[in-house]
Write a structure and sequence with these properties.
122 residues, mainly beta
Amino acid sequence: QVHLVESGGGLVQPGGSLRLSCAASGLLFSINTMGWYRQAPGEQRELVATITSGGNTNYADSAKGRFTISRGNARNTVSLQMNSLKPEDTAVYYCHADGVRTPGRPGQNQSWGQGTQVTVSS
């Protein structure tokens, strides 16, 4: 199995910054799209940002201008730079990989990380 491990979550004050990172472990050939989703208590999981292997990005309206998503050089990592954080950003953030190709498995698969808590509070 391909596992996604997130890091970088924590507690920050409003207006502060955090950088979330995610790394895919296990044998794999390639990952098409990686992204970040978040889920606040009582809310559905929502897309924050995605990035393709070619570098094309897509952001939720709430993230535009404040968050930046990027892929690592090895293309099996993804980061989310979050600036000007607001209390409304408080949620569990999940790393996601789509279009994952691995040895011995036909087609493409997807994978979710376990999530990392981001809390924005005074």
